[in-house]
Amino acid sequence: MKILVTGAAGFIGYHVCHNCLINGHDVVGLDNINDYYNVELKYDRLTQLGIEQKNVESFGTIATSSIYDNFKFIRLNLEDKDALPGLFENEQFDIVCNLAAQAGVRYSLEHPEAYIDSNIVGFLNILECSKKYTIKHLVYASSSSVYGMNEKIPFETSDNVDNPISLYAATKKSNELMAYTYSHLYNIPTTGLRFFTVYGPWGRPDMALFLFTQAIMQNKPIKVFNDGNLERDFTYIEDVNNVILEILQKKPREKDLYKIYNVGNNKSVKLLDFIEAIEENLGAKAQKILMPMQPGDVKKTWANVDDLVKDYGYRPNTDITEGVKKFVDWYKNHYFMNQ
Protein backbone atom coordinates (compact mmCIF):
# COMPACT_ATOMS: atom_id res chain seq x y z
CA MET A 1 0.00 0.00 0.00
CA LYS A 2 0.98 3.63 -0.31
CA ILE A 3 0.53 5.32 3.07
CA LEU A 4 0.65 8.98 4.04
CA VAL A 5 1.92 9.40 7.60
CA THR A 6 1.49 12.94 8.94
CA GLY A 7 3.52 13.97 11.95
CA ALA A 8 6.33 11.83 10.57
CA ALA A 9 9.06 13.70 12.46
CA GLY A 10 7.14 13.27 15.71
CA PHE A 11 7.47 10.56 18.32
CA ILE A 12 4.75 8.12 17.26
CA GLY A 13 4.89 9.17 13.61
CA TYR A 14 8.59 8.33 13.31
CA HIS A 15 8.02 4.84 14.71
CA VAL A 16 5.00 4.24 12.45
CA CYS A 17 6.98 5.29 9.36
CA HIS A 18 9.81 2.92 10.25
CA ASN A 19 7.45 0.01 10.93
CA CYS A 20 5.53 0.52 7.68
CA LEU A 21 8.75 0.79 5.68
CA ILE A 22 10.32 -2.40 6.99
CA ASN A 23 7.03 -4.18 6.26
CA GLY A 24 7.27 -3.22 2.59
CA HIS A 25 4.81 -0.35 2.28
CA ASP A 26 5.47 2.82 0.28
CA VAL A 27 5.39 5.74 2.71
CA VAL A 28 5.26 9.49 2.31
CA GLY A 29 5.98 11.29 5.56
CA LEU A 30 4.68 14.79 6.21
CA ASP A 31 5.60 17.18 9.01
CA ASN A 32 5.91 20.94 9.46
CA ILE A 33 8.78 20.48 11.98
CA ASN A 34 7.47 23.25 14.24
CA ASP A 35 9.39 24.46 17.28
CA TYR A 36 6.96 23.30 19.99
CA TYR A 37 10.02 21.44 21.27
CA ASN A 38 13.65 21.23 20.14
CA VAL A 39 13.59 20.65 16.38
CA GLU A 40 16.95 18.89 16.51
CA LEU A 41 15.24 15.82 17.96
CA LYS A 42 12.78 15.87 15.05
CA TYR A 43 15.63 16.11 12.55
CA ASP A 44 17.44 13.30 14.36
CA ARG A 45 14.38 11.07 13.93
CA LEU A 46 14.25 11.91 10.23
CA THR A 47 17.95 11.08 9.92
CA GLN A 48 17.12 7.57 11.16
CA LEU A 49 14.76 7.36 8.17
CA GLY A 50 17.41 8.58 5.73
CA ILE A 51 16.25 12.20 5.36
CA GLU A 52 18.93 14.88 5.70
CA GLN A 53 18.07 18.14 7.46
CA LYS A 54 19.42 20.32 4.65
CA ASN A 55 16.94 18.74 2.24
CA VAL A 56 13.84 19.65 4.25
CA GLU A 57 14.62 23.08 5.67
CA SER A 58 12.23 24.75 3.24
CA PHE A 59 8.51 24.06 2.92
CA GLY A 60 7.08 22.15 -0.01
CA THR A 61 10.18 20.26 -1.16
CA ILE A 62 9.98 16.48 -1.32
CA ALA A 63 13.13 14.68 -0.15
CA THR A 64 13.93 11.05 -0.89
CA SER A 65 15.42 8.73 1.71
CA SER A 66 19.03 7.58 1.47
CA ILE A 67 18.15 4.44 3.46
CA TYR A 68 14.69 3.36 2.28
CA ASP A 69 13.85 3.44 -1.42
CA ASN A 70 10.15 3.33 -0.46
CA PHE A 71 10.20 6.51 1.65
CA LYS A 72 9.79 10.18 0.77
CA PHE A 73 9.32 13.16 3.07
CA ILE A 74 7.72 16.57 2.58
CA ARG A 75 7.76 19.51 4.97
CA LEU A 76 4.25 20.94 4.89
CA ASN A 77 1.55 22.42 7.10
CA LEU A 78 -1.76 20.58 7.19
CA GLU A 79 -3.38 24.02 7.16
CA ASP A 80 -2.01 24.61 3.63
CA LYS A 81 -5.24 23.92 1.74
CA ASP A 82 -3.56 24.68 -1.60
CA ALA A 83 -0.51 22.40 -1.34
CA LEU A 84 -2.11 19.45 0.49
CA PRO A 85 -4.56 18.49 -2.30
CA GLY A 86 -1.67 18.60 -4.78
CA LEU A 87 0.24 16.09 -2.67
CA PHE A 88 -2.78 13.76 -2.59
CA GLU A 89 -3.27 14.06 -6.34
CA ASN A 90 0.38 13.38 -7.14
CA GLU A 91 0.88 10.47 -4.75
CA GLN A 92 -2.51 8.68 -4.94
CA PHE A 93 -2.44 7.34 -1.38
CA ASP A 94 -4.34 4.23 -0.36
CA ILE A 95 -4.28 4.93 3.38
CA VAL A 96 -3.81 8.03 5.54
CA CYS A 97 -2.41 7.82 9.07
CA ASN A 98 -2.91 11.30 10.53
CA LEU A 99 -0.70 11.68 13.60
CA ALA A 100 0.13 15.36 13.07
CA ALA A 101 -1.32 17.64 15.73
CA GLN A 102 -0.40 20.35 18.14
CA ALA A 103 0.12 18.29 21.27
CA GLY A 104 0.20 19.09 24.96
CA VAL A 105 -2.51 19.94 27.47
CA ARG A 106 -0.52 22.65 29.27
CA TYR A 107 0.66 24.40 26.11
CA SER A 108 -2.97 24.78 25.02
CA LEU A 109 -3.62 27.07 27.98
CA GLU A 110 -1.19 29.64 26.57
CA HIS A 111 -1.35 29.07 22.80
CA PRO A 112 -4.94 28.12 21.94
CA GLU A 113 -4.71 29.35 18.33
CA ALA A 114 -2.08 26.72 17.50
CA TYR A 115 -4.58 23.97 18.36
CA ILE A 116 -7.34 25.38 16.18
CA ASP A 117 -4.97 25.79 13.23
CA SER A 118 -3.39 22.36 13.35
CA ASN A 119 -5.97 20.14 15.02
CA ILE A 120 -9.18 21.58 13.55
CA VAL A 121 -8.32 23.34 10.27
CA GLY A 122 -5.57 20.84 9.46
CA PHE A 123 -7.80 17.85 10.18
CA LEU A 124 -10.59 19.31 8.07
CA ASN A 125 -8.15 19.54 5.15
CA ILE A 126 -7.19 15.89 5.66
CA LEU A 127 -10.86 14.90 5.62
CA GLU A 128 -11.54 16.91 2.48
CA CYS A 129 -8.58 15.35 0.68
CA SER A 130 -9.62 11.88 1.88
CA LYS A 131 -13.06 12.48 0.40
CA LYS A 132 -11.84 13.90 -2.92
CA TYR A 133 -9.15 11.30 -3.53
CA THR A 134 -11.12 8.26 -2.30
CA ILE A 135 -8.88 7.21 0.59
CA LYS A 136 -9.59 3.61 1.61
CA HIS A 137 -9.01 4.17 5.32
CA LEU A 138 -8.23 7.21 7.47
CA VAL A 139 -6.58 6.36 10.79
CA TYR A 140 -6.07 9.33 13.09
CA ALA A 141 -4.76 10.21 16.54
CA SER A 142 -7.20 11.08 19.26
CA SER A 143 -6.29 11.21 22.94
CA SER A 144 -7.19 9.88 26.37
CA SER A 145 -7.62 13.55 27.36
CA VAL A 146 -11.14 13.45 25.85
CA TYR A 147 -12.29 11.60 28.99
CA GLY A 148 -11.78 14.73 31.08
CA MET A 149 -12.79 14.28 34.72
CA ASN A 150 -14.45 10.93 34.07
CA GLU A 151 -14.43 9.04 37.38
CA LYS A 152 -15.53 5.70 35.96
CA ILE A 153 -12.49 3.41 35.80
CA PRO A 154 -11.32 1.98 33.47
CA PHE A 155 -12.23 4.38 30.67
CA GLU A 156 -14.35 2.86 27.91
CA THR A 157 -15.04 4.25 24.46
CA SER A 158 -18.76 4.12 25.26
CA ASP A 159 -18.28 6.62 28.13
CA ASN A 160 -19.63 10.14 27.74
CA VAL A 161 -16.84 12.51 26.67
CA ASP A 162 -18.82 15.73 26.29
CA ASN A 163 -16.95 17.67 28.99
CA PRO A 164 -13.32 18.27 27.96
CA ILE A 165 -11.25 20.22 30.49
CA SER A 166 -8.58 21.53 28.09
CA LEU A 167 -8.68 23.00 24.60
CA TYR A 168 -6.40 20.19 23.43
CA ALA A 169 -8.99 17.66 24.59
CA ALA A 170 -11.75 19.68 22.93
CA THR A 171 -9.94 19.61 19.57
CA LYS A 172 -9.45 15.85 19.81
CA LYS A 173 -13.13 15.29 20.60
CA SER A 174 -13.91 17.57 17.65
CA ASN A 175 -11.76 15.38 15.41
CA GLU A 176 -13.83 12.35 16.38
CA LEU A 177 -17.08 14.18 15.58
CA MET A 178 -15.71 15.46 12.27
CA ALA A 179 -14.55 11.97 11.31
CA TYR A 180 -17.98 10.55 12.13
CA THR A 181 -19.64 13.13 9.87
CA TYR A 182 -17.38 12.32 6.92
CA SER A 183 -17.80 8.58 7.45
CA HIS A 184 -21.57 9.03 7.50
CA LEU A 185 -21.83 11.41 4.54
CA TYR A 186 -19.10 10.08 2.25
CA ASN A 187 -18.53 6.46 3.34
CA ILE A 188 -14.92 7.10 4.32
CA PRO A 189 -13.71 4.44 6.78
CA THR A 190 -12.22 6.28 9.78
CA THR A 191 -10.55 4.89 12.89
CA GLY A 192 -9.70 7.12 15.85
CA LEU A 193 -7.07 6.05 18.36
CA ARG A 194 -7.27 7.43 21.89
CA PHE A 195 -3.64 7.18 22.97
CA PHE A 196 -2.84 6.82 26.68
CA THR A 197 0.50 8.35 27.79
CA VAL A 198 2.73 6.79 25.15
CA TYR A 199 6.41 6.63 26.13
CA GLY A 200 9.68 5.10 24.98
CA PRO A 201 12.83 5.78 22.91
CA TRP A 202 12.69 8.93 20.74
CA GLY A 203 9.93 10.28 23.01
CA ARG A 204 8.90 13.91 23.35
CA PRO A 205 10.95 16.23 25.59
CA ASP A 206 7.80 17.70 27.16
CA MET A 207 6.67 14.34 28.53
CA ALA A 208 7.27 13.32 32.15
CA LEU A 209 9.69 10.46 31.43
CA PHE A 210 11.98 12.66 29.36
CA LEU A 211 11.80 15.61 31.79
CA PHE A 212 12.41 13.44 34.86
CA THR A 213 15.29 11.49 33.31
CA GLN A 214 16.97 14.65 32.09
CA ALA A 215 16.61 16.43 35.44
CA ILE A 216 17.82 13.51 37.56
CA MET A 217 20.88 12.99 35.35
CA GLN A 218 21.69 16.70 35.67
CA ASN A 219 21.11 16.64 39.45
CA LYS A 220 18.21 19.06 39.13
CA PRO A 221 14.84 18.86 40.92
CA ILE A 222 11.66 17.59 39.29
CA LYS A 223 8.17 19.01 39.65
CA VAL A 224 5.69 16.44 40.91
CA PHE A 225 2.12 17.64 40.51
CA ASN A 226 -0.79 16.96 42.86
CA ASP A 227 1.84 15.98 45.45
CA GLY A 228 2.46 12.82 43.42
CA ASN A 229 -1.12 11.58 43.76
CA LEU A 230 -1.52 10.87 40.05
CA GLU A 231 -1.90 7.64 38.11
CA ARG A 232 -1.41 7.04 34.41
CA ASP A 233 -1.93 4.22 31.96
CA PHE A 234 1.63 4.34 30.59
CA THR A 235 1.78 2.68 27.16
CA TYR A 236 5.05 1.60 25.56
CA ILE A 237 5.69 2.81 22.02
CA GLU A 238 6.40 -0.64 20.55
CA ASP A 239 3.02 -1.96 21.68
CA VAL A 240 1.34 1.10 20.16
CA ASN A 241 3.35 0.88 16.95
CA ASN A 242 2.55 -2.77 16.35
CA VAL A 243 -1.21 -2.34 16.67
CA ILE A 244 -1.20 0.73 14.41
CA LEU A 245 0.45 -1.36 11.70
CA GLU A 246 -2.22 -4.04 12.15
CA ILE A 247 -4.96 -1.43 11.78
CA LEU A 248 -3.36 0.08 8.67
CA GLN A 249 -2.95 -3.31 7.00
CA LYS A 250 -6.43 -4.65 7.74
CA LYS A 251 -9.34 -3.56 5.57
CA PRO A 252 -12.10 -2.08 7.74
CA ARG A 253 -15.32 -4.04 7.84
CA GLU A 254 -18.42 -2.34 6.44
CA LYS A 255 -20.02 -2.24 9.89
CA ASP A 256 -16.86 -0.59 11.22
CA LEU A 257 -17.00 2.41 8.91
CA TYR A 258 -16.46 4.61 11.99
CA LYS A 259 -14.52 3.24 14.98
CA ILE A 260 -12.86 4.57 18.10
CA TYR A 261 -10.35 2.56 20.13
CA ASN A 262 -8.49 3.07 23.37
CA VAL A 263 -4.77 2.39 22.95
CA GLY A 264 -3.37 1.84 26.44
CA ASN A 265 -1.57 -0.70 28.59
CA ASN A 266 -4.81 -1.71 30.35
CA LYS A 267 -3.51 -0.81 33.80
CA SER A 268 -2.87 2.29 35.88
CA VAL A 269 0.54 3.04 37.44
CA LYS A 270 1.13 5.46 40.30
CA LEU A 271 3.31 8.42 39.32
CA LEU A 272 5.59 7.85 42.31
CA ASP A 273 6.15 4.22 41.23
CA PHE A 274 6.97 5.51 37.75
CA ILE A 275 9.54 7.90 39.21
CA GLU A 276 10.99 5.06 41.30
CA ALA A 277 11.50 2.99 38.13
CA ILE A 278 13.44 5.90 36.60
CA GLU A 279 15.54 6.25 39.76
CA GLU A 280 16.39 2.55 39.75
CA ASN A 281 17.54 2.67 36.13
CA LEU A 282 19.61 5.80 36.68
CA GLY A 283 21.03 4.75 40.04
CA ALA A 284 20.13 8.14 41.48
CA LYS A 285 17.37 9.67 43.58
CA ALA A 286 15.10 12.42 42.31
CA GLN A 287 14.84 15.74 44.14
CA LYS A 288 11.07 16.17 44.22
CA ILE A 289 9.30 19.52 44.39
CA LEU A 290 5.68 18.75 45.30
CA MET A 291 3.25 20.94 43.37
CA PRO A 292 -0.55 21.41 43.31
CA MET A 293 -2.74 20.00 40.56
CA GLN A 294 -2.31 21.76 37.21
CA PRO A 295 -5.27 23.24 35.30
CA GLY A 296 -6.46 20.88 32.59
CA ASP A 297 -4.85 17.83 34.20
CA VAL A 298 -6.60 14.70 35.50
CA LYS A 299 -5.81 12.48 38.48
CA LYS A 300 -6.06 9.06 36.88
CA THR A 301 -6.23 7.38 33.48
CA TRP A 302 -6.82 3.72 32.71
CA ALA A 303 -7.83 2.30 29.33
CA ASN A 304 -10.23 -0.53 28.67
CA VAL A 305 -8.74 -2.08 25.51
CA ASP A 306 -11.15 -5.00 25.07
CA ASP A 307 -12.32 -3.82 21.63
CA LEU A 308 -8.78 -3.54 20.35
CA VAL A 309 -7.98 -7.01 21.68
CA LYS A 310 -11.08 -8.44 20.01
CA ASP A 311 -10.66 -6.76 16.63
CA TYR A 312 -6.87 -6.72 16.24
CA GLY A 313 -5.44 -9.15 18.78
CA TYR A 314 -3.83 -6.28 20.68
CA ARG A 315 -1.56 -7.51 23.45
CA PRO A 316 0.34 -4.80 25.33
CA ASN A 317 3.14 -6.75 26.98
CA THR A 318 5.74 -4.19 28.04
CA ASP A 319 5.67 -3.45 31.77
CA ILE A 320 6.82 -0.15 33.19
CA THR A 321 10.19 -1.47 34.42
CA GLU A 322 11.17 -2.79 31.00
CA GLY A 323 9.82 0.23 29.13
CA VAL A 324 11.56 2.78 31.34
CA LYS A 325 14.85 0.89 31.05
CA LYS A 326 14.66 0.98 27.26
CA PHE A 327 14.02 4.71 27.30
CA VAL A 328 16.82 5.45 29.77
CA ASP A 329 19.26 3.35 27.72
CA TRP A 330 18.30 5.30 24.59
CA TYR A 331 18.55 8.63 26.38
CA LYS A 332 22.00 7.88 27.75
CA ASN A 333 23.29 6.70 24.38
CA HIS A 334 21.73 9.39 22.25
CA TYR A 335 20.23 12.53 23.65
CA PHE A 336 22.22 13.18 26.81
CA MET A 337 25.55 12.74 25.04
CA ASN A 338 24.51 15.21 22.34
CA GLN A 339 23.51 18.07 24.62
TrEMBL record:
Keyword Lipid metabolism on this protein? no
Q: Which UniProt keywords apply?
A: NAD
Protein name, per record: NAD-dependent epimerase
> Residue limits of the NAD-dependent epimerase/dehydratase domain?
3-264
Record-linked SUPFAM superfamilies? NAD(P)-binding Rossmann-fold domains
